[in-house]
Amino acid sequence: MYDLIIQNALLITFDQDDRILDNATLVIDQGKIIDILPKGSVLPKAREIVNHNAQLVTPGLIDCHTHLVYGGNRADEFEMRLNGVSYEEIAKQGGGIRSTVMATRNASLDALYHSARRRLKQMMQYGTTTCEIKSGYGLDIDTEMKMLKVAQNLNTLKEVDIIPTFLGAHALPPEFDDKDQYIDFIIAKMLPVLKKENLAQVVDGFCENIGFSHAQIRRLFTHAKEHGFRLKLHAEQLSDQKGAALAAQFNALSADHLEYLAVEDIAKMRAANTVAVLLPGAYYFLRETKLPPITELLKSEVKIAIATDANPGSSPFLSLPLMMNMACTLFRMTPYQAFQATTINAAYALGIQDQKGSIEIGKCADLVLWDCEHYNQIIYDATLNYRKTTIKNGKLFA
Q1: Do 60 and 390 form a contact (C-beta atoms < 8 A)?
Q2: What is the C-alpha to C-alpha distance for residues 293 and 52, in angstroms, rounded to an integer?
Q3: pLDDT in tens, 191-222
Q4: Is the pTM for the entire model greater than 0.85?
Q5: Which of 137, 138, 286, 365 could form a disulfide with 144 if both were Cys (CB 3.0 to 4.6 A apart)?
Q6: Element housing 368 (H / E)
Q7: Which tens digits make up the pLDDT trace of 135-159?
């Protein structure tokens, strides 16, 4: 007898065949998808059977780029930008990432946990079942490890999986005057502690004029790879620093933002299977005008993922359906492409495509049952929450 059957469902599989199956049945046991039965099949026995009344079932949504753990907020900076102050000018005046660093350093582990948990619960209500969480608002050993411990503590929630990422090279901390010295500190002091404590398996960085140079990130990536970490990179958000090409050279999982990505670097990403993670929330919130090269990425068959970039300064958003709407309206992606970007392609961006991101036999039963008949409704009407039920590792959650 199986654990759970979902019958009479409209399945969007996002597998290699990109199947849309009408009136199908999903057989789930021990947290896995055991079988996918076509319309009219005889149902096997199960402890629980759910009739979904020909409504939509998709893979659980995957948010592959977030900064969910932080102290304070930056609503004042939002108003400053509306009055004409640029993101770079705010950062140079001690705002931006540095202001969040101070608030995060001063916050207790419990305070960070409860604020992040509140945000995560909201994300889950909109269908997120897997969430990457970066550090990067500590910039010292104690606070960076505190943030990653919060991420690990959030992983105890049964409705969601957390993937922690170390982002020590996010900004220059106030106690350092030299970026090269800080990169040396990350390499010599932070990476060994991170490895010993097993708090993250992925290392990220911010390759930008207001972040770290191509050469500095190369040095960090070289040592991180020697420690066995997988890699991601914030690249080409404000200028072309050839970060995406660097990420591809190191076979990074993803390069993220990419508004200023040079067309000639797209082939390098494709050859390395480096996913292009686009962050329309930040593009919208910062009122950017330089579009990522969407058409060229699609033509080159680079996998495109979409994420919230949930953070206090440039994208305080928690809903992946809203991000899909922005990707369609701002980046001219199709609704199907946007859904693909928050399921299987987002799984590739985190290196978990063998377990999550599509509805396939043998994969984790991470699913969302939606109260609608078509995926485009979820994106078109993004502020109306169509999520009916989440299935996480084979368990139903209302």
Answers
A1: yes
A2: 39
A3: 999 999 999 999 999 999 999 999 999 999 99
A4: yes
A5: 138
A6: strand 367-370
A7: 999 999 999 999 999 999 999 999 9
